[in-house]
Amino acid sequence: MYGYEITQKVKEITKGKIDISEGALYPILHRLEADKILDTKKVYIGKRVRKYYKITNSGKKAAQKITAELNDFIGTLSLIFNEKKPLYEAD
Questions:
Q1: Other CB atoms closer than 10 Å to residue 63's CB: what's the count?
Q2: DSSP labels for 23-82?
Q3: N or C: which end of the chain has fewer CB within 10 A?
Q4: What domains are defined for the chain?
Q5: Where is the Transcription regulator PadR N-terminal domain (predicted)?
């Protein structure tokens, strides 16, 4: 997908809960490209160039690792906030 297409897909998947501006997205895409998380392909449309982004195998592994870490963190927060006994009792 190209940048604008990514912003629209994220908005669609999250039902509008995440609305990434292109100005915020492109620096992230460039960093992920530099880190070899994304591959890019330039397509010329008339005089314009459209850059398509695709996740690499190492990018997929990194995403799985980060997702597992976030799920673990959320699980830990659930333990804290769903505690039956209060963590702190006021006098």
A1: 12
A2: HHHHHHHHHHHHTTSEEEEEEEETTEEEEEEEE-HHHHHHHHHHHHHHHHHHHHHHHHHT
A3: C
A4: 3-81 (1.10.10.10)
A5: 1-64
pLDDT band at 81 (very low <50, low <70, confident <90, very high): confident
Give the C-alpha distances (Å, rounded to integers) separating 43 from 15, 37, 50, 86: 29, 20, 5, 58
Q: Which position has the higher pLDDT, 89 or 45?
A: 45
Closest to 43 (Cα-Cα) out of 34, 53, 35: 53
Residues 28 and 37: their CA atoms lie apart, in Å, by: 11
To the question of pTM greater than 0.85 for the whole model, the response is: no
